[in-house]
Amino acid sequence: MFSANTTQVAAATASRAIAVAHSVFPFITAYPWSVSGFGTKYANPATLPDGVGRGVAFSTDGSAIAVAQDDPPYILAYPWSGFGFGTKYANPATLPTGEGNGVAFSTNGSAIAVAHNTSPFVSAYPWSGSGFGTKYANPTTLPTAIGRGVAFSPDSSAIAIAHQTAPCVSAYPWSGSGFGTKYANPATLPTGTGFGVAFSNNGSAIAVAHSSIPVISAYPWSVSGFGTKYTNPATPPTGDAYGVAFSPDNSAIAIAHETSLFISAYPWSVSGFGTKYANPATLPTGIGLGVAFSTNGSAIAVAHSTTPFVSAYPWSGSGFGTKYTNPATLPTGNGNGVAFTSGGFPVQQIAVGHATTPFVSAYPWSSSGFGTKYANPATLPVSTRNGVAFSPNGSAIAVAHSTTPFVSAYPWFSSGFGTKYANPATLPTGNGFSVAFSPDGTAIAVGHSSPPFVSAYPWSVSGFGTKYVDSPTFPTSTGRGVAFSPSGTAIAVAHGFIPYISAYSWSGSGFGSKYSNPTTLPTSDGRSVSFSPGSTEIAVAHDSSPYIAAYSWSGSGFGTKYADPSTLPTGNGLSVAFSPAGTEIAIAHAVTPFVSAYPWTTASGFGTKYTNPATLPAAQGNGVAFSRDGATLAVAHTTTPFITAYPWSSSGFGTKYTNPTTLPASTGNGVAFNTIT
Fold first, then answer.
1. How confident is the model at residue 15 (pLDDT cuts 50, 70, 90)?
2. pTM higher than 0.85, yes or no?
3. Do 85 and 117 lie in a common domain?
4. Are residues 552 and 447 in the same domain?
5. How far apart (Å, rounded) are the C-alpha atoms in residues 79 and 276?
């Protein structure tokens, strides 16, 4: 029973992964993490730990994960990304001398330390993108016995080791040279074996989880070392304490411990412990051995001794929320340590909606192009049409299609599709052509083939809410394209029949009044609509020359139509997108070259058309999208390979990326990029 807790640096970014060190093969298990809880388990590392995982830690930037284990080499480390474990780093040249019990990265990312069973009881190494450096010299004054837990201070100026036998905690200055001269012991020592240690995230306190009442001891911390021990909590944890963690905002402290309740949490302030929070409604099922807060403090997780071996809860100023559902694939033995990370991201994906089963295909995306196709969703969309969109925070994906329920949505993780959300209680009334999320992620809209031609719903981590009341002034025909303004104050629908484009004010209450039609209408059926990133322009792709119409946009609605581009797209405009910077606009269309792109300015509109890509899309372009970082442009089209992507810069198209190894199954109808940040 060993702690695996390290200081968790406060961060505004939500955690994106959680890892558990445990007692049975494969000894380490990691999952995507989101506001919905655990995602589908990441693949095991190619080189597994050799024995019981005792502790786990992510580097502060999320680019590495380390596991302390009970067999040589006692410490293992891997690159980490949104794709999971990378190839194991080479072992340190000088190994720790015994079973690894706890591990921590320095918060500045330049060092890694292991608490272990045999003298010198702690080993520390430089850390870089290449892995372990040459072991630092041992501290002059060693910890007195088995090292159980280790932590660096938030500014990386100190390191502390929880250990067996008095003083049960030892702390040292830390620098690029390694260990400094040991700080004086605290005046009031922990009363038994130190199992876990943590610094508060503002560096003003240090806490030790230990055996023997009060099982938790906390002290002010400064450059002088330990201050006078804080008063014990009025309601102490029950049984020996094995892990401790401070919340990222320093407002709470949590202790994993031996007897039921297995986890205890308290408000924390400069005065020390507050009144214990109410216990979680569903307790961990066994001895609490490790505890961690998520990087933004919105969740807390406990590693424990009985199945499911890890339990996680929402966390707020009120304490524990309702326990998250257990991961679908559990850790395989006693959970000994747990850690969250927000790093290893962003991870990009690209999704293509297409005409035959599985109707949507998604791939990792990087500067190297397409990665290996993600597994299809367990419950597929049911047919074609296939507009596709990711939510703004990357946690959901939705597909519009031509058969009931006309829209399907799924949680999205860096590992791919989650379990399909329940259909909306009130379905769209006809074939789904397009789908879009509002910029704050609180609404989703579907363009479809029957009145009211557009349906919108509240959106949350639970999926679809109760359908918003329809606008009293419908679009006049099939909603083929739908978009929210980036300001979140408008929604627009490209549709058949005059006026071909309809726009409405939008708020948390849903549709507002319809804006007046533009003075100069598009010339035929609207197929797609896009707002510029600044919500200062709106563009409509449509069926007849000039195939694209663009207008200024304001709180009053449509302004003056921009002059047509001097070189028009060559056929029906079927999709339109502004680049994330708002400095380019691209149109997918029906006739070669199948995609046309132009510089864009608010003042002048279209610039001189960019040179066509050297390798054109293979046929009619049905969908077009820029990646969220603006470095890629992709086109969904009617002929194999059904999706074509290019590097993008201010010079225009780069050399076409290699096709994905597993192609979409048929005609690409829509395309969307995602970034998990």
1. confident
2. no
3. yes
4. yes
5. 38
